[in-house]
Amino acid sequence: MGTIQQAAGMEQLLRQHECLCFQAAYYLLGKEDEALAAAKLALLAIAREEGFMALPESLQRERVRHAAAVCSLHIRKNTMLAG
């Protein structure tokens, strides 16, 4: 599969998990703007993850929730340090 097709496939896959990622981040942070920032970071991290596309959907969802949690903690930490 060519690089362009892989990128298109990854984009489509990330869009399928976008809502779950935001919901997980919002559940942890409780603020829409912070949840959006965490979800963006999480989806970018997942896009760089080797082999994500080949995982079964249940494991993909688990990785998305995990990435959302890690990025939410990062956002929370930075928010607490800033203010």
Envelope shape: elongated
Task: Give the integer mean of the pLDDT values.
Answer: 93
- Kindly report the oligomeric state of this protein: single chain
How many H/I helices? 3
Strand content: under 5%
- Uncertain runs: none
Query: Helix and strand succession?
Result: HHH
Say how many strands there are.
0
Which structural class do the helices and strands define?
mainly alpha
Radius of gyration: 13 Å
Largest sheet: none
| Intertermini distance | 47 Å
Helical content (DSSP H or I, runs of 4+): over 70%
Which helices and strands, and how do they pair?
Elements: H1 3-29, H2 32-47, H3 57-82
Helix pairs in contact: 1-2, 1-3, 2-3
Q: How does this model look, in words?
A:
This protein has 83 residues and is an all-alpha fold. It contains three helices and no strands. The radius of gyration is 13 Å and the shape is elongated.
Question: Can I get a quick summary?
Answer:
The chain has three helices and no strands. With 83 residues, it is an all-alpha fold.
Provide keyphrases for this structure.
83 residues; mainly alpha; 0% strand
